[in-house]
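Predict fold of Cysteine dioxygenase; 208 aa.
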Amino acid sequence: MDRNNMQSLYYSCWRLATDSNALQALIAEVETNRSNTAISELERKFRSLTHLDVGFTPGNYYTPRCIVYTELIETPELSMGLFGMSTGCNFPIHDHPSMLAATFVLSGRLQYRNYDILSRERGGVINLSLCMEGEARGGELLFLTPKRGNLHQIQALENSVFLDVFIPSYNDIDRPCTYYQEIAPNKVASFVPQLPFKSLPYVGRPLY
Ligand SMILES: [Fe+2]
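Predicted 3D structure, encoded as tokens:
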């Protein structure tokens, strides 16, 4: 059966979400910095995507001081979404509890900082250590895992759009998304940010 590029990516992600051996193999590659079969396969699928495949139109996704979001799919096992950020827009530090996240930059330039958790204190305070930082441009794929770089901050250095895959999905029970602000060097406290979000419907190719 011929699959379009979105279906091809979706089925690879779904396999990771439902086959714990496949997921652990990918996490092991990410955590040991050894890109092998699992990362390469996923990278190939992401890199084959065109703007038409994901239904991305620059004019719609770059709104000043606003994060534009399109949900592609959300199930307990997996979620996929498209994010647009205009130059200067900042996604504060936030976590992805017990999750793998893959971020593929479709276009633009992002600055990212990922942190590991060193210890937790009362009142939602966490001691962090910077695990990786850099700039990612169109065509680059970033990962974070339950243990490595699980908290991150993203800033758009240029108008940027990226596709996120979460395995499993956030939920309100045991995997909520918590935002943090720095209260001292390498120390953050949870807070509720004022994040202006705008939602757009998905107009890309069918996922399944
Ligand atoms: Fe994130």
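The chain has a mean pLDDT of 95.
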